[in-house]
Specification:
single chain, 208 residues, alpha/beta, TIM Barrel, 8-stranded parallel sheet, 10 helices, 8 strands, 17% strand, globular, binds 3-phosphoglyceric acid
Amino acid sequence: MSIFNIINEAKLIPLTTITSREDVEPLCEVLVEASIPLIEITLRHKRTLDIIDEFNKFPEVHLGVGTVRSKSHIDLAINASASFLITPGYSENLLDYAKQKNIPLIPGVQTPSEIMKANEAGLSTLKFFPAELSGGVDRLKAYKSVFSDIKFIPTGGITNGNALSYLALDNVIAVGASALISPDLINSKSWSEIKNNLKESKELINKS
Ligand code: 3PG
Protein backbone atom coordinates (compact mmCIF):
# COMPACT_ATOMS: atom_id res chain seq x y z
CA MET A 1 0.00 0.00 0.00
CA SER A 2 1.36 3.44 -0.86
CA ILE A 3 1.99 5.91 1.93
CA PHE A 4 -0.76 8.11 0.48
CA ASN A 5 -3.24 5.24 0.87
CA ILE A 6 -2.06 4.71 4.43
CA ILE A 7 -2.55 8.42 5.23
CA ASN A 8 -5.91 8.36 3.51
CA GLU A 9 -7.06 5.42 5.60
CA ALA A 10 -5.67 6.73 8.88
CA LYS A 11 -7.20 10.21 8.30
CA LEU A 12 -4.94 11.46 11.07
CA ILE A 13 -1.24 12.25 11.21
CA PRO A 14 -0.24 12.78 14.82
CA LEU A 15 2.87 14.91 14.97
CA THR A 16 5.38 15.55 17.66
CA THR A 17 8.99 16.31 18.40
CA ILE A 18 11.14 13.77 20.18
CA THR A 19 14.49 14.55 21.70
CA SER A 20 15.34 11.39 23.55
CA ARG A 21 16.20 8.01 22.05
CA GLU A 22 14.51 6.15 24.89
CA ASP A 23 11.14 7.74 24.07
CA VAL A 24 10.96 6.22 20.60
CA GLU A 25 10.04 2.69 21.71
CA PRO A 26 7.15 3.63 24.07
CA LEU A 27 5.88 6.10 21.49
CA CYS A 28 5.82 3.45 18.77
CA GLU A 29 4.16 1.03 21.18
CA VAL A 30 1.28 3.38 21.98
CA LEU A 31 0.79 4.14 18.29
CA VAL A 32 0.48 0.44 17.54
CA GLU A 33 -1.84 -0.09 20.52
CA ALA A 34 -4.04 2.76 19.33
CA SER A 35 -4.00 1.29 15.79
CA ILE A 36 -2.41 4.40 14.32
CA PRO A 37 0.11 3.27 11.73
CA LEU A 38 2.03 6.49 11.27
CA ILE A 39 3.62 9.48 12.95
CA GLU A 40 5.23 12.72 11.85
CA ILE A 41 8.35 13.59 13.80
CA THR A 42 9.29 17.21 13.34
CA LEU A 43 12.92 18.24 13.08
CA ARG A 44 12.63 21.26 15.33
CA HIS A 45 15.19 20.35 17.88
CA LYS A 46 18.89 19.69 17.39
CA ARG A 47 18.71 16.54 19.48
CA THR A 48 16.04 15.05 17.20
CA LEU A 49 18.62 14.98 14.40
CA ASP A 50 20.81 12.66 16.48
CA ILE A 51 18.14 10.22 17.55
CA ILE A 52 15.67 9.95 14.68
CA ASP A 53 17.44 6.85 13.32
CA GLU A 54 16.03 4.99 16.36
CA PHE A 55 12.82 4.64 14.32
CA ASN A 56 14.64 2.07 12.18
CA LYS A 57 13.90 -0.39 14.97
CA PHE A 58 10.13 0.07 14.61
CA PRO A 59 9.20 -0.60 10.99
CA GLU A 60 5.57 -1.25 12.01
CA VAL A 61 5.15 2.53 12.34
CA HIS A 62 5.40 4.52 9.12
CA LEU A 63 7.68 7.43 9.87
CA GLY A 64 7.03 10.83 8.36
CA VAL A 65 9.73 13.39 8.94
CA GLY A 66 8.40 16.92 9.23
CA THR A 67 9.72 20.47 9.31
CA VAL A 68 12.19 19.34 6.65
CA ARG A 69 14.07 22.43 5.54
CA SER A 70 17.31 21.20 4.00
CA LYS A 71 18.85 18.42 1.96
CA SER A 72 20.66 17.17 5.04
CA HIS A 73 17.28 16.77 6.75
CA ILE A 74 16.20 14.60 3.81
CA ASP A 75 19.35 12.49 4.16
CA LEU A 76 18.65 12.02 7.87
CA ALA A 77 15.06 11.04 7.17
CA ILE A 78 16.16 8.45 4.61
CA ASN A 79 18.71 7.14 7.08
CA ALA A 80 15.85 6.66 9.56
CA SER A 81 13.85 4.73 6.90
CA ALA A 82 11.22 7.45 6.70
CA SER A 83 8.24 6.71 4.45
CA PHE A 84 7.53 10.36 3.67
CA LEU A 85 8.70 13.92 4.16
CA ILE A 86 6.73 17.03 5.06
CA THR A 87 8.02 20.54 4.45
CA PRO A 88 6.39 23.61 6.02
CA GLY A 89 6.38 25.44 2.67
CA TYR A 90 7.00 24.75 -1.00
CA SER A 91 10.65 24.36 -2.03
CA GLU A 92 11.48 23.27 -5.56
CA ASN A 93 15.01 22.56 -4.46
CA LEU A 94 13.94 20.11 -1.74
CA LEU A 95 11.28 18.56 -3.94
CA ASP A 96 13.88 17.85 -6.67
CA TYR A 97 16.19 16.28 -4.12
CA ALA A 98 13.40 14.12 -2.65
CA LYS A 99 12.49 12.97 -6.17
CA GLN A 100 16.12 12.08 -6.83
CA LYS A 101 16.14 10.07 -3.61
CA ASN A 102 12.78 8.52 -4.44
CA ILE A 103 11.01 9.51 -1.24
CA PRO A 104 7.52 11.09 -1.26
CA LEU A 105 7.39 14.71 -0.11
CA ILE A 106 4.28 16.60 0.97
CA PRO A 107 4.89 20.34 0.91
CA GLY A 108 3.01 22.92 2.93
CA VAL A 109 0.96 25.37 0.86
CA GLN A 110 -1.41 28.17 1.60
CA THR A 111 -2.06 30.18 -1.55
CA PRO A 112 -3.39 29.34 -5.04
CA SER A 113 0.05 30.16 -6.53
CA GLU A 114 1.78 27.69 -4.24
CA ILE A 115 -0.80 25.04 -5.05
CA MET A 116 -0.24 25.62 -8.78
CA LYS A 117 3.54 25.39 -8.44
CA ALA A 118 3.33 22.16 -6.46
CA ASN A 119 0.82 20.70 -8.90
CA GLU A 120 2.99 21.67 -11.89
CA ALA A 121 5.79 19.76 -10.19
CA GLY A 122 3.60 16.67 -10.21
CA LEU A 123 2.15 16.73 -6.70
CA SER A 124 -1.52 16.34 -5.91
CA THR A 125 -1.47 15.78 -2.13
CA LEU A 126 -0.46 18.88 -0.20
CA LYS A 127 -0.32 20.01 3.40
CA PHE A 128 -2.51 23.06 4.04
CA PHE A 129 -0.55 25.03 6.61
CA PRO A 130 -1.13 26.78 8.94
CA ALA A 131 -4.71 25.65 8.46
CA GLU A 132 -6.65 27.60 11.03
CA LEU A 133 -4.71 30.82 10.46
CA SER A 134 -5.02 30.54 6.70
CA GLY A 135 -8.79 30.56 6.43
CA GLY A 136 -9.43 27.00 7.60
CA VAL A 137 -12.41 25.07 6.32
CA ASP A 138 -13.80 28.01 4.31
CA ARG A 139 -10.62 28.41 2.33
CA LEU A 140 -10.48 24.72 1.53
CA LYS A 141 -14.10 24.88 0.40
CA ALA A 142 -13.13 27.65 -2.00
CA TYR A 143 -10.24 25.51 -3.33
CA LYS A 144 -12.57 22.60 -4.02
CA SER A 145 -14.00 23.86 -7.28
CA VAL A 146 -10.77 25.45 -8.55
CA PHE A 147 -8.39 22.65 -7.62
CA SER A 148 -10.77 19.71 -7.79
CA ASP A 149 -7.93 17.23 -8.32
CA ILE A 150 -5.87 18.34 -5.29
CA LYS A 151 -6.15 16.70 -1.88
CA PHE A 152 -5.15 18.51 1.30
CA ILE A 153 -3.87 17.59 4.75
CA PRO A 154 -4.76 20.57 6.93
CA THR A 155 -2.34 21.08 9.80
CA GLY A 156 -1.92 23.89 12.30
CA GLY A 157 -4.56 24.50 14.94
CA ILE A 158 -6.33 21.17 14.43
CA THR A 159 -8.06 19.78 17.52
CA ASN A 160 -10.72 17.18 18.28
CA GLY A 161 -13.12 20.11 18.16
CA ASN A 162 -12.52 21.07 14.53
CA ALA A 163 -10.98 17.95 12.91
CA LEU A 164 -14.33 16.60 11.74
CA SER A 165 -15.31 19.78 9.89
CA TYR A 166 -12.09 19.44 7.88
CA LEU A 167 -12.53 15.72 7.31
CA ALA A 168 -16.07 16.31 6.06
CA LEU A 169 -14.60 18.07 2.99
CA ASP A 170 -13.96 15.75 0.10
CA ASN A 171 -10.69 17.50 -0.77
CA VAL A 172 -9.28 16.64 2.68
CA ILE A 173 -7.73 13.19 3.09
CA ALA A 174 -6.36 13.56 6.62
CA VAL A 175 -5.57 16.12 9.30
CA GLY A 176 -2.26 16.64 11.09
CA ALA A 177 -2.18 17.59 14.76
CA SER A 178 0.39 18.03 17.48
CA ALA A 179 -2.20 18.37 20.25
CA LEU A 180 -2.42 14.61 20.87
CA ILE A 181 1.25 14.12 21.72
CA SER A 182 2.36 17.36 23.31
CA PRO A 183 5.99 17.83 24.41
CA ASP A 184 4.75 18.00 28.02
CA LEU A 185 3.18 14.55 27.74
CA ILE A 186 6.38 13.18 26.26
CA ASN A 187 8.59 14.84 28.87
CA SER A 188 6.44 13.47 31.67
CA LYS A 189 6.40 10.07 29.92
CA SER A 190 2.60 10.02 30.08
CA TRP A 191 2.32 7.17 27.61
CA SER A 192 -1.12 6.00 28.71
CA GLU A 193 -2.49 9.53 28.37
CA ILE A 194 -0.98 9.75 24.89
CA LYS A 195 -2.56 6.42 24.03
CA ASN A 196 -5.95 7.61 25.28
CA ASN A 197 -5.67 10.82 23.24
CA LEU A 198 -4.83 8.85 20.11
CA LYS A 199 -7.65 6.36 20.67
CA GLU A 200 -10.14 9.09 21.42
CA SER A 201 -9.29 10.92 18.18
CA LYS A 202 -9.37 7.74 16.18
CA GLU A 203 -12.79 6.81 17.56
CA LEU A 204 -14.10 10.28 16.86
CA ILE A 205 -12.86 10.11 13.28
CA ASN A 206 -14.13 6.57 12.73
CA LYS A 207 -17.61 7.52 13.90
CA SER A 208 -17.86 10.44 11.50
C1 3PG B 1 3.09 21.67 11.94
O1 3PG B 1 4.28 21.60 12.00
O2 3PG B 1 2.47 21.12 11.03
C2 3PG B 1 2.34 22.49 12.93
O3 3PG B 1 3.16 23.12 13.84
C3 3PG B 1 1.31 21.72 13.66
O4 3PG B 1 0.41 22.60 14.15
P1 3PG B 1 -0.30 22.32 15.54
O5 3PG B 1 0.79 22.34 16.57
O6 3PG B 1 -1.27 23.47 15.72
O7 3PG B 1 -1.00 21.00 15.46
